[in-house]
């Protein structure tokens, strides 16, 4: 990922292209991803007077997705389900009704909320025919940005998410850090989901991560995103797929990152490409280039000799047209800084990701997941430093629930991410160092690889936060 601090290059000209890259569609695909319909943002369910009440029905339905009619696993009958939109300090009352054959549950990915009881408790089993009533109470200082929700039913989370069970959560408040003239800019959800096809259904079993797949934005194949020359838009880039990585680039145009994994940055930073490992999100500002068309792409990416090779694909076509706009300049700084570099460290731990030679079993510290075993105990109101070491020949996407972390270094090189995050890519045969402040909540939660095939095959551990 090429990164530049500050605002240099933000007004770079858009590179125009006349051809559309092949997208590797599965199951007798067309030869290329033809330019599609205008981007449709998901419908929203919005909190009122401090409460969001929602009812999600999990069922298998035939849906229109990427121009095809397929059987999928859905929330409320949609492959791209409603966005849940809340504010810091809100309460979310959510009824999850299971009309599937197997059991399921729900995880609110990245949100700082209790992992116990009827809150973000991933140990719950909601059996067929049952309705479970979740109740989440969010702190007043909940970080604004983009999050997501999905099934965390072990060991079938990959099946359910790959089948379609993932959606977006937005915590409002991010725009307040922008100049007044930019606080009403247009925003888009750019939810990156992929699916493989088996017969007339989205494939859920025997998933091969590197197999040809259909990459969609909000369930659409190569939709068009309209923008005026010079206009600034807020795009909520979110990898809400089960297993694959996205290395996203907008030809000739940099991204201005204002939040990472739902955490506002202290300084806006610029990137030509953004790697969204499984579970990652970036809130970015994009400026419309000169009149014409350009493409939002995912570029070729390899996760290593034991991993997968992801080909280039067109995600969306950006159409710049209409009268030019001249928005105000962006600030050099953004949100208040969160920094654990000078914190007192209560404990240091090493967490090792590994796998067998066949790539069929995955381990954390040599053990496979057991929900009845506590692997790590950490004390509330302390800061710990963890080395996450990868002893395998493929990259892994490290994710921990409840509390976000500061990424301190990658393979021994200091890292400045300008904020916290909840997911980080761990290089093959390499390591990252993170620091976490355990705040507000006690209880049992988990850490795992967010490549869900790996999680389901054992790469998950129980973390208990105690007083």
Automatic annotation (TrEMBL):
Q: List where the protein spans the membrane.
A: none
Q: Which UniProt keywords apply?
A: Metal-binding, Oxidoreductase
> Is Cell inner membrane among this UniProt entry's keywords?
no
Q: Give a yes or no for keyword Metal-binding in this entry.
A: yes
Output the InterPro entries linked to this UniProt entry.
Cu-oxidase-like_N, Cu-oxidase_2nd, Cu-oxidase_C, Cu-oxidase_fam, Cu_oxidase_Cu_BS, Cupredoxin
One Pfam match, given by its short name, reads: Cu-oxidase
Domain spans labelled Plastocyanin-like: 58-172, 210-287, 357-464
Query: Highest taxon of the source?
Result: Bacteria
**What name does UniProt use for this protein?**
Multicopper oxidase family protein
> What is the species of this protein?
Nonomuraea purpurea
The beginning of the lineage is: Bacteria, Bacillati, Actinomycetota, Actinomycetes, Streptosporangiales
